[in-house]
Amino acid sequence: QVQLVESGGGLVQPGGSARLSCAASGFSLDYYDIGWFRQAPGKEREGVACLTSSGGATYYEDSVKDRFTISRDKAKNTVYLQMDSLRPEDTAVYYCATDVVPGPKGSSWYVGSYGSWGQGIHVNVSS
Question: Does residue 55 carry a pLDDT above 80?
Answer without folding.
Answer: no
